[in-house]
Design goal:
alpha/beta, single chain, 3-stranded antiparallel beta sheet, 3 domains, TIM Barrel, 8-stranded parallel beta barrel
Length: about 550
């Protein structure tokens, strides 16, 4: 029985929508995409991006094909202000791209925002204020009229500032922050009050952005909220309905997808889902979701390896190997039955027919992958690919902790060489990093004696006269005892595994060991005629490397 007191969390209210239409609709085209990587994504980082990282990510966003990019919160951050000025003064904004900036409904911040945007050819000013009951009552101490007044004043200040800068093509956007926790009728009322100030037309529409600032319910409830808003707001033909979903419940992509069915036309999100708390809506995932249903996402996602690399390096955040569509292991089948099914389907798949391959919802070649990518290792490869190659070609079954260490060295090698690392080179890297080095002492002989459940071990090393002697419950325990009797660092065994390299009486054995040498982990491995020799030599390899 759960220890949680679930009564503390009431279920989200349902929307009074008796004739909902969205469940019977089908998506037919991509939305207007808005990247908020440089604003929402950046403010969620432990260490915000440097100027160089922002410029690099901006370049990627342009190349991917975004036409609207939220570039910062210039009134709240000097680095954001400076980055906006760099974009404008250095003419970095293509003619078909609009930058967007966020600002609260406060006069001084709005004036500062327009100062940052001075000289921009076109820009979207994104105004917001919180509207939910908990924000109204516990944060601002206001009623609905008081919160509506904040939005109306902010909208007027934005309009007045825009009139002072007529050379820029201005677009306005308003977000009732915490929309998903706001009463639907009040959300409509406050947005209509903002529209009354801005007076949009079908030719000059206003963007109304409805965020799930904190994801409050299942995606179908969010879709109901969007459809309710879309069917109750005035001047629907004079606004663009946008959504900005977060992933607190794990449904950001689903919520955005269903919101499009419910009437939204525009989606804000980030590449690979970086964002506050559990993240923003993942544009890459939604883009490939559309593509897998025969819809052109209208973004160039054909090189996800570059997207993953750039975003990871700019944000210092890794991408999970099981990340939808672009994770490094997404098109890798470890199950034998999966591999067999894929192989048989690929053998029958024709170029002139719809894609029909078990376990592969899209052709990996469309995004620069293929099924055999698991046996090809480059800078994007992880421990799974490296381990697969070593086992397939060399019979080495590395434990997980050694896979992780070796994968890092393989990645460095790939980056240095600028391409693929072949299986033979991976084997050499394994030998260089873990097998006994030239200076490692070699076991020349050993003697094991067991009396009363205690293992007594004597090991003689090459070029030494006095053997090492120790005792313990097992061979490794005894050998570690022998080492610890010497005048050197303290040694403990953290992990150990072994296996035969071949079958038959003449098979070699390989041993893998992870030691703690003075508390610091150190790995080693060895190959020998028997498992005991391999184990002893693997310990010496790790110990010698630590020394």
């Amino acid at each position: 029985m759960s220890r949680f007191d679930a009564t503390r969390y009431p279920a989200a209210p349902l929307v009074a929508l008796s004739n909902r239409q969205w469940p019977d609709r089908r998506l037919e085209k991509a939305p207007r995409w808005v990247s908020v990587d440089l604003r929402d994504g950046n403010q969620a980082l432990l260490e915000p991006m440097s100027v160089a990282q922002k410029r690099r990510l901006w370049k990627l966003l342009i190349e991917v094909g975004f036409k609207e990019i939220e570039v910062g919160f210039p009134a709240a951050s000097q680095p954001d202000f400076d980055f906006v000025r760099w974009l404008i003064e250095e003419r970095q904004i293509p003619d078909d791209v609009s930058i967007q900036v966020l600002v609260q409904a406060r006069k001084a911040l709005i004036e500062r925002t327009f100062a940052a945007l001075e000289g921009a050819p076109r820009a979207i000013v994104h105004l917001y204020n919180s509207t939910s009951p908990v924000q109204r009552e516990r944060v601002f101490g206001l009623d609905c009229e008081g919160v509506k007044a904040i939005a109306v004043r902010g909208a007027q200040w934005v309009k007045d500032e825009a009139l002072r800068h007529p050379d820029t093509d201005w677009r306005f956007q308003y977000s009732p922050e915490s929309f998903t926790h706001t009463e639907m009728d009040f959300a409509v009322v406050i947005c209509e009050a903002v529209l009354d100030v801005w007076q949009p037309t079908p030719e000059r529409p206003v963007i109304i952005n409805l965020p799930s600032t904190v994801e409050a319910a299942s995606p179908n409830v969010f879709a109901d909220q969007i459809e309710y808003f879309a069917t109750h707001i005035d001047r629907r033909d004079s606004l663009v309905l946008s959504v900005h979903t977060h992933n607190d419940r794990g449904g950001a992509v689903a919520s955005a997808e269903l919101a499009l069915l419910a009437g939204a036309e525009r989606v804000e999100g980030t590449l690979l889902g970086n964002g506050e708390r559990t993240g923003n809506m993942d544009i890459v995932t939604l883009g490939f979701n559309l593509y897998s249903q025969g819809i052109d996402p209208e973004l160039d996602l054909s090189n996800p390896a570059r997207i993953v690399r750039t975003v990871s390096e700019c944000t210092s955040l890794p991408v999970h190997p099981r990340h939808p569509w672009v994770g490094e292991l997404v098109y890798t089948a470890f199950s034998g039955s999966h591999q067999d099914a894929i192989r048989k389907c690929l053998a029958q798949q024709r170029e002139d027919e719809p894609w029909q391959v078990a376990y592969l919802p899209i052709d990996p070649r469309d995004i620069g992958r293929d099924y055999q990518a698991v046996i090809r290792v480059n800078s994007q490869s992880g421990k799974g690919g490296v381990a697969f190659v070593l086992e397939r070609d060399h019979g080495l079954r590395l434990p997980r902790w050694m896979q992780i260490q070796l994968a890092a060295h393989v990645q460095e090698e790939s980056e240095r060489r600028g391409g693929e690392v072949e299986a033979s080179r991976i084997r050499l890297l394994f030998e260089e990093q873990f097998l006994p080095a030239a200076q490692t002492p070699r076991v020349s002989a050993y003697h094991l004696d067991q009396t009363g459940g205690v293992q007594r071990l004597q090991v003689r090393l090459e070029a030494t006269e006095k053997p090492l002697e120790g005792q313990g419950e097992g061979v490794l325990d005894a050998f570690i005892d022998a080492i610890n009797r010497q005048d050197g660092p303290r040694v403990d065994v953290l992990d150990y595994s072994e296996h035969a390299l071949e079958s038959g009486a003449d098979a070699h054995a390989v041993a893998y060991v992870q030691l703690a040498v003075n508390g610091q982990p150190q790995a080693g491995a060895a190959i020998a005629r028997d498992t005991l020799s391999a184990a002893l030599q693997a310990v010496l390899s790790a110990y010698s490397r630590a020394a």
